[in-house]
## 1
Amino acid sequence: MIAIRCSALFDGTSFMPAGATVVVDGAAIVGIEAGHPDVGADVEVVEFGEATVLPGLIDTHVHLVADSGPNALDLVEGYSDAEVDAVVTRSLAAHLAAGVTTVRDLGDRRFAVVDRRDAQRAGRSRVTEPTILASGPPLTSPRGHCYYLGGEVSGPVEIEAAVRERIDRGVDVVKVMASGGMTTTGTDIMLPQFSLDELRLIVEIAHAAGIPVTAHAHALAAVEISLAAEVDGIEHCGCLTPQGPRVPDEVLHALVGRQIPVGAALMSPPPVSYDQAPPNIRKMMAQFGVTPEQFLELRRAAAGRMHAAGVRFVGGSDAGINTFMAHGLMRSALDFLVSAGATVAEALAAGTSLAAAACGFGSRKGLVRNGFDADLILVDGGFGADLAPLGRVRQVMLGGRFVPAGTG
């Protein structure tokens, strides 16, 4: 057994600031104590001093096949299988180094990440890597958002075949592109890509197999259709209209009332990174008649209104699609929530306990609790008014084992 001692604990919901001891036996947490009590001579004690222990972060929205370069998703179609595998390895290493111990991949190319997940579950991983959940290629309309990943479908026959293929492969979630996307030229982020009947068909088939559905939805119309189809999660939830973001009261009430997890991949490009922004983002800003700074404020205001109303945000970074959304930048996604009005504890919960629940892991990950997986991170110092300590990860524990320094 191992006892981790440090000056503070965030347990996935709240802080224990006056010293904490977490006892780990094998792959599980078996004890949490305030202060630094005697744990017995048969327990190895590891002292971290002025540090905070918290659950490993869970990123609910990543693209492991994308290499974090400018317009990275556009390049994936041309990669060889070996190149995809190498990118996935580097992506996972970057997440682990940043304290992310579980990732949910929502943008696979031809099931490469599903295969990687299967190898991991079979104990055939070549390196230490975060726990992988995977959707396979997202379902999209012909030449729709991310069509090059292999998920194009048209009409009920193709939709049913594609969903059943994902069921047969045991995906953890079905991802559907309910609207066009920011990174795929030729798609319209203001319009739905599927009808309500088509989305309902996807949901009904997936739910019959016990698999949840999450919908990428930038357009307000796509958010409304996704809610009517009873999806289990919404990514982005930008509620975009030709006049700008708009969150009608009825949409807000539905999100709050059903507590649908909203993947918090909400950010627009930082103004300093605008030169690298995809063409669709530039087009949208021109349509709205706003500067990058003004659009960022519009997004922040919309997210702030949703948060204040009680919308359940979960941490998701959209990692890998560009330099400003690179793998390992989970902190940036949570920082955005703080800037929109969330407290530090609320933002950390979004990236731990709430994210675990959204991924179906709420009974074993995301909390420092007896019997839960010993996926933990230690960060220097204590949390104050911001998330700066997440940029100072000192040690990562995955499944009860300390990850060697320099892993990845």
## 2
Amino acid sequence: MDTEVASELRDAPSPTRRRVLARRVARVAWFAILGVALFFALRERWVEVRTELATLDGSRLWLAMVAGVAGVGASSGIWHYMLGGVGEPLPLGVSLRIFFVGQIGKYVPGAVWPAVTQAALAREHGVAPRATVSAATLFLWVHLVTGTALAVTVLALTGRLPLLTVLTVPVLAALLMPTVLGWALRLLLRLTRRRRLRQLPDGRHLLPAVGWAVAMWVCYGVHLQLLSWAVDDPISLPSAAGVFAVGWVVGFVLLIAPAGVGPREAAIVALLPLGQGTALLIALVSRLMMTVADAVWAGLTALNLQRLNRSRR
């Protein structure tokens, strides 16, 4: 570890036994808060749709669940490569654990908790907080740019936007160029008076991250399409992927409730070429499945960490 990063991580003297115990208690308390927030999010989503679920095609619901879990899993590839892009590569298992456990923070009111949790977990592996926050910012940026490009393309080709709006897609693609991202990150760090990163993302990191983003949007599109099949009112895969992307972008921009609850569903209902009642049911079931997917991945990666710790001891 270089001197600069070490000085950032070593902002207090060597911890005493009492201080270590206090940190452990604080960590347990925070993870308990995350667990409670996730539980209430799951319960609220379940109450919304439990009656209607019995009327849907069960096999297609399970396939939609699998596609949703795969999409959430693919999103971790963006995080993993962005963390490596800022000069803090971690083993895949450790990286996934930090990402998925941190993602539960989005169910706590306030938009900063995923990044705060991820920074605290990554710090234990020698990663400077500024690097983790930068990786989290890039993760969201790749989501936002690729999702907007997909949404604009689908809406323009289906006649919901003027066809000329597809000309904005190359402009959006330029926002993922290493030079543009590097300039933006340097400016952000300068404004927040943080030290420079070890390195900035280049094509070796951005291309795989965009590839994982494409895989993620495809999985989400399959997920929404399978839900439309489950209600016996099918839509095409491009339309499903575009609608989900619009919902994600709207939920991100209008972050009124935790995890974008509300605006995302409203956008999906408005854009699905289905009846309003059917579209609302699909949006609510989709939200329930995405919440379950977050819980599944967080549980699996946390379990793997416990096994790793036992093997080390």
## 3
Amino acid sequence: MSKVFLALSGGVDSTAAALLLKRQGYTVVGFFMQHPWQAKNDNANEAEQIALRLGIDFHRMDLAEAFQNIVDYFTDEYFQGRTPNPCAFCNKTVKFGVMFEEMNRRGCDFLATGHYIRRRSHNDWLGDDSSSLDCFSLEFDPEFPAICRGKDAGKDQSYIMFGVERAKLSRLLFPVGDYEKSRIRELVSEAGFDFSGKSESQEICFVPDQEHVSFIHRQRPGMNTAGNLVTTEGKVIVSHDGFEQFTIGQRKGMKIGLGDRRYVVRIDAKTHDVVIGCREDLKREELTASQTHWLIPTPKQPFRAQVKIRYRSPATPAWVIPFENHRMTIKFDEPREAIAPGQVAACYLGTRIIGGGWIDS
């Protein structure tokens, strides 16, 4: 009987994952990722109670050091004028990095999470998505599974999987990925669990109040990033007290009266200028990315794909042009708005994510 190391958060999705794994005959070992930035231990206690009710082993994992690396990355990115993606960074380094090693150490066969992602065989994916293969310059290795969008399009989390090592994919399980969220809630309710009074998990688990500016200031006290809001023509409009409070595409909170709507177009970490413009100024036809990582054999030639530039943005058609030193350029068929350095450009073929990189410009 295979043994599964399951991330158990105390929420509905990981509880459903535990139920589904048990029904499939796996021996489940639950773990809770504990770190100093959690406001309280309620979730850990709830996860432990869920494990007790399900009759599975449970462990609290002290991940203070691993999460310090995430916090440092998150903080430094903002102070470099970029928009970080801590979930993608965490997936690569902690969930499917540190915890993958812990899974091996404990003699487990698989690592599972409650992500809305589907792991499919290459042939199963090919049968459904063959119409997406309009470029033949790509290679595929059928021995490695395909990582695909979750069935529930509104909850799909495949975007943050681009950086996971390909060799690990066959040992990852995503039990809830084949279900709609509504059905997941029904499953846990039918099993006697009541989550009606529990809100959805927070987007950034180490910033409990979601006040990222005050959080990063606590990490780097004394940082001075004050500067000016300037137009695309270079005209100074007003001063600001820190560029880390702005993100590309932001409209609210600038407190300027220029008559029409203005958006953050660019952040210059060297001059501390925050450049604002009209919506048209947000549109760009291409981007460059570095630290690319592929879930298929590394592409050598340009190819067609659909590309997401943010977790909540749609994937749209583009040419992907790979270069040496883990870099790529993406040229979109239609201009995209608010391309933010620091975010992930994730490449898809139909439902399958095949890789991506960190946006530089």
## 4
Amino acid sequence: MSPYEHLDRPFPPKAGVYAVRAGPIITKNINHFLNGEDLEEYVPQPEFLALLMTGDKKAVGTRFGFTFDGKWVWNMKDFIDVNFMKLFDPYFLFNDYDNKGFSEPVENNELFDEDQKSNNEDKERARGVVADMSVEKAVSLMKSGEEEEGFMEQFMILERMKKDEEFRDGVIDGCKIK
């Protein structure tokens, strides 16, 4: 029996995040199959962050049943998308790609190190701010004005909401249109 049979819609939804997350399991299962080993079960996450750019340097997002919008959502989506696409950029995957082409793959994504260091510092700073943040402050940030461009604290609020049910419920309730 599928753990999703109780849903009134097909699951998982048609969203790229499910294909991306299934990829490593599929790779492992091909190897397991070829070696006569037991296959791993892919259990999709129950929901995901959906972001849609609206073409005006703004975007709309939804997670946990509520929506948010503005320039900060655009910037968050751009940050996520650019970092994902680097996984396929030969300039990040091969040493001196212009001169050597595909002949020298980098070790363990070492060319990502500088970018990741900066991104991780920003994330850790924001994660620290959000760790002790009140629900009221989180609601205020999630409802940031249309011109707000910073997104890392909102991104970390969404991360905290995945793990902290009481915080999540408070933010969702505070973001409801009253």
